[in-house]
Design a protein that fits this description.
Blueprint: H1 3-26, H2 28-31, H3 38-46, E1 67-70, E2 73-75, H4 78-87, E3 95-99, H5 105-111, E4 116-121, H6 124-136, E5 142-146, E6 159-164, H7 173-177, E7 179-190, E8 196-203, E9 209-217
Helix pairs in contact: 1-4
The structure holds S-adenosyl-L-homocysteine.
Length: about 230
C-alpha cells in the first residue's frame, strides 16, 4: 500500500472506532457496557478489515455495517464484533472457541486478546479461504476446522469463552458442556430471519448458570444438528 492509501485506511479505521464508541454509549442501558475495554478497541484498530472482504466490498470495509462475504454469509457489523468480544472478558491466558469462522475477521480480533482461538466453519470454501488468509496475515494462534459447530470442539475443551457468530434457535447443549466454570458464552438466539436476541450465558465457578438477553440482533442462521 502507498503511504497515501495507508493514511486513508487509518483515517477510516479511526472513524470506525469512533462509531463503535458512540454506539456502545447509545446501547449501554441494554448491554451494561458504556465503553469497551481498551484492548478490544486496540485490536479492532489493528486488524485490517479490508483484508477479510471480497474485492467488490473493500470500499466499505470500515463502514459500521455488516457486509456479504459470499455463500449467503456476512461479516458482522464492527460494533457487534467489538461488543461480542468485549462481553467475553478475555485475558491473555484465555482459550476461546468461535463457531462460524466466515472470513476469519472475528477470529483475528479475538486472537489479539486471547492465548489461543479455535474456530469452526461448516462451509468448506469459507473454511479454506479463511484458513489461508489467517495464515498469510500471520495470525498464528488460531486453529480452524471444517465441521458442524453445533457439536463444539470436544478435544480442545474446556473453553474460557465461546462466541457463536450465527443465530441458533437454542443454546447448543454441547457448547454449554464445553464451557469452563467461570466461562462466558455470547450467542445470538432466535428463529432464522425473525426476532433474535444476543444472549450472554455465564457458567459460574460453582457450575450454576445464568443467561441474559441483551440486544435485538440480526444474524445468518446457525446450521443446526440435523442438516449441517
Ligand atoms: N465470524 C465471521 C462471520 C460469521 S457469518 C466473520 O468474522 O467473518 C456466520 C458463519 O457461520 C458462516 O460462515 C456460516 O457458514 C457459519 N455457520 C453456520 N452454521 C454453522 C455450523 N453449524 N457450524 C459451523 N459454522 C457454521
Amino acid at each position: 500500500m502507498t503511504p497515501v492509501a495507508k493514511d486513508a485506511v487509518n483515517k477510516k479505521s479511526i472513524q470506525m472506532l469512533e462509531q463503535i464508541a458512540s454506539e456502545a454509549k447509545f446501547t449501554a442501558s441494554m448491554t451494561g457496557r458504556k465503553a469497551f475495554d481498551d484492548r478490544v478497541i486496540d485490536s479492532m484498530g489493528e486488524v485490517p478489515r479490508e483484508k477479510f472482504l471480497p474485492l467488490n466490498n473493500k470500499l466499505f470495509a470500515y463502514a459500521n455495517r455488516p457486509l456479504p462475504i459470499g455463500y449467503g454469509q456476512t461479516i458482522s457489523q464492527p460494533y457487534i464484533v467489538a461488543l461480542m468480544t468485549d462481553l467475553l472478558d478475555l485475558t491473555t491466558e484465555s482459550i476461546v472457541l468461535e463457531i462460524g469462522t466466515g472470513s476469519g475477521y472475528q477470529a483475528a480480533v479475538l486472537s489479539r486478546l486471547a492465548k489461543k482461538v479455535y474456530s469452526i466453519e461448516s462451509i468448506a470454501e469459507l473454511f479454506e479461504s479463511a484458513t489461508k488468509r489467517l495464515k498469510k496475515l500471520g495470525y498464528d494462534n488460531i486453529e480452524t476446522r471444517c465441521s458442524n459447530g453445533y457439536e463444539g470442539w470436544g478435544e480442545k475443551a474446556p473453553f474460557d469463552g465461546i462466541i457463536v457468530t450465527a443465530a441458533a434457535t437454542h443454546i447448543p447443549p454441547a457448547l454449554i458442556d464445553q464451557l469452563k466454570p467461570g466461562g462466558r458464552m455470547v450467542i445470538p438466539v432466535g428463529m432464522p430471519h425473525m426476532h433474535q436476541e444476543l444472549m450472554l450465558f455465564v457458567k459460574e465457578l460453582d457450575g450454576s448458570t445464568h443467561t441474559d438477553a441483551l440486544l435485538d440482533v440480526a444474524f445468518v442462521p446457525l446450521v443446526m444438528e440435523e442438516n449441517a
